[in-house]
Amino acid sequence: MRFGDLPAWAIELSSSIRDAVFLEDHVSEPINSVTSNGGTKPCILPSNLLWREPLFDQLIVNVYHPGEGICAHVDLMRFEDGIGILSLESSCVMHFTRVEEGGSDIVEHHENHPLTIKVPVLLTAGSLVIMSREARYLWKHEINRKPGFQMWEGQELMQERRISITLRKLCQFFCLPALNVEH
Ligand SMILES: O=C(O)CCC(=O)C(=O)O
Ligand SMILES: [Fe+2]
Q1: Which BP terms in the Gene Ontology apply to this protein (predicted)?
Q2: Nearest protein Cα to ligand 1, atom 8
Q3: Which residue among 110, 120, 180, 183 is buried most deeply as judged by most CB within 10 Å?
Q4: What is the pLDDT at residue 175?
């Protein structure tokens, strides 16, 4: 874990993340363009987060061996909005579960329970997760690598070592989430 001045490689990585988010938001399909389902494309990171300096000042590198993962959680409120996770080596499925109003218990996935939403996201080597606004504050993320949980398109993923680099920015003062979520 590292706080404060990041090593040169992490500063370079932060800068590449900023470029990637900017390109995705403003070049490939600009925000406010109409999507295939008729909605407007939301931005990945609002500009006050994308252009803050530094973009990140804390990093943690996690190494997971087969069977190891991370249980469902919302990142600590001592970190600002706008969190990046770079996933390396073995692929995995990260699940997002909505934080239940009034409680913080893990919501179990039941196939026949229509109100329980668990969103699987496949992370292959090099995938970048950016969590902001609702995704950062109202959804828990987890990686369960116990047998039977790493399913994608009906197949169990082959597990090897996985490394993730999580980049965050510490709140200067106690910060409350500024959730100005656009739909
Ligand atoms: O390893 C990952 O991909 C997730 C790490 C994470 O969620 C965290 O460190 O808070
Ligand atoms: Fe996390």
Answers
A1: DNA damage response; fatty acid metabolic process
A2: 166
A3: 120
A4: 66
Rg of the chain over Cα atoms, rounded to whole angstroms, equals 17
Q: Which residues are CB-neighbours of 18 under 8 A, at least 6 positions away?
A: 50, 55
Q: What is the dihedral of CA 84, 18, 42, 31, to 10 degrees?
A: -170
Q: Where are the domains of the chain?
A: 2-26+43-102+115-174
Testing ligand 1's pocket by substitution, the residue of 164, 167, 168, 170 carrying the most ligand atoms inside 8 A of its CB is: 164
- 168: closest CA among 136, 143, 122? 136
Of 64, 109, 116, whose CA–CA distance to 85 is shortest?
A: 64
**Euclidean distance between CA atoms 46 and 44, whole angstroms:** 7
> Considering the entire predicted model, what is its pTM?
0.85
- What one-character DSSP code corresponds to residue 91? -
Ligand 1: which of 75, 166, 170 to mutate, most ligand atoms within 8 Å of CB?
166
Ligand 1 atom with the smallest distance to the CA of 94 is: 3
CATH number for the domain formed by residue range(s) 2-26+43-102+115-174: 2.60.120.1520
